[in-house]
Write a structure and sequence with these properties.
With 416 residues, the chain is an alpha/beta fold. Helix content is 34%, strand content 19%. The longest helix is centred in the first third of the chain and has 16 residues.
Amino acid sequence: MTKKIVVTGLGATTPLGGTVSDSWKALLAGESGTSALEQEWVAQHDLPVTFAAQARVKADEVLDRVEFKRLDPSSQFALVAGREAWADAGSPEVAPERLAVDWSTGIGGVWTLLDAWDALREKGPRRVMPMTVPMLMPNAPGAAIGMDLHARAGIRTVVSACASSTEAIANAYDHLQAGLADVIIAGGSEAAIHPLPIAAFANMQALSKRNDSPATASRPYDVTRDGFVLGEGAGAVVLETEEHAKARGAKIYAELAGGAVTSDSYHITAPDPEGSGAARAMISTIEHAGATREDVVHINAHATSTPTGDIAEYKALLRVFGDHLPNIAVSATKGATGHLLGGAGAIEAVFTILALHNRTAPPTINLTEQDPEILLDVVTSSRALGDGTASSEKLLALSNSFGFGGHNAVIAFRNY
């Protein structure tokens, strides 16, 4: 029998704010989390891109000194978001053997890895920190959360580029359906605002180079979009069966109605231009949710602000929704947060949940002239969802994530 899976806790640290409430408030206000980088290494390496969407609240302002020193930034952000989500869920009393973590990252501990390489090259092997490997491992962020919460039903890590954290949440849905745990904390984190990824992404023409106007650089669907903005942070959700949540008297934000993962097998970086793999992921997710395409009222789109990516996603949406597409309110929140790579889907899941919970679609900023080839109803100022005729009105929303390697992951939420 299919169980109803619900969301009982939210956590986030983003370029818009250090908490879920601060991030959501800034998102609705149309703020941008992107700013010029002031670190010395920008000029030292003569980087072609001099801005990014840095976390609004630094992890050392939240974690204690020992925790901060022993964790890579990707794990620091994970622990901050994970703790907030856990507290928001009421710190459930659950046996450790029935608590699991489904986490993700796209790149992992890049700061630790490259700092260690610098130390080895410049100072010799004795100056490489003993904790280097445990800090750089891609599974370290999930492990940090799991050890903090004493999760012993499994700590799994997905690494599927920019689809990672959406895939992790889809996996958590499956693991709860399979009865592998009673409560799962799921999400993703990323901390790759480092000279090497910036240089690499810039050289492959993936990043916006709008150095003269960082706050308006990420502009999904705009005719002048020229690439994504690199962001950092983490998002987390606490998931459990409805039965378990009700038994402990938990507040419920939304239902996680389903999820699906597909692959393009087309190109290592470029999406399938016809969007067939992305379309299959959306169709499977809607079927998983026991819904029809007409039930979907809102989509938090992947929409990275790249010239080809935004078009490919639109074609996928058109394949799935056809003449219903104009009825769907589409938000592209990377305009405000930048692109958090493996952490993007988790933060966008949080925003999708809040959109349903508050019946409000968040705005897409920096869209001044919509690409005439992308015929979507893009939300540019906060908008009510549903017709408002009844509090019991069922609303379904999708959150899309697509990544290098041809990874496609989609999850669906229903208001509760």
